[in-house]
Design brief:
Largest sheet: none
Number of helices: 3
Shape: elongated
Strand content: under 5%
Number of strands: 0
Radius of gyration: 12 Å
Order of helices and strands: HHH
Number of domains: 1
Oligomer: single chain
Structural class: mainly alpha
Length: 53
């Protein structure tokens, strides 16, 4: 699978960022956006709130 984007390995926070704010396309740009949004979510919300959402 060299050179392919594979599934799995996302944290709950990353999944929340992707499901709330991002498209379903698979790209390195979207992954970078996911990392930024995930960082912001974890700064502003505690884990309990992230689980609730």
């Amino acid at each position: 699978m060299r050179g392919k984007i594979v599934a799995g390995g996302s944290t709950i926070s990353q999944q929340l960022a992707r499901n709330l704010f991002l498209s379903r396309e698979k790209s390195y740009v979207r992954k970078a956006q996911e990392l930024v949004i995930t960082s912001m979510l974890e700064l502003w919300m505690d884990k309990e709130r992230i689980f609730e959402i």
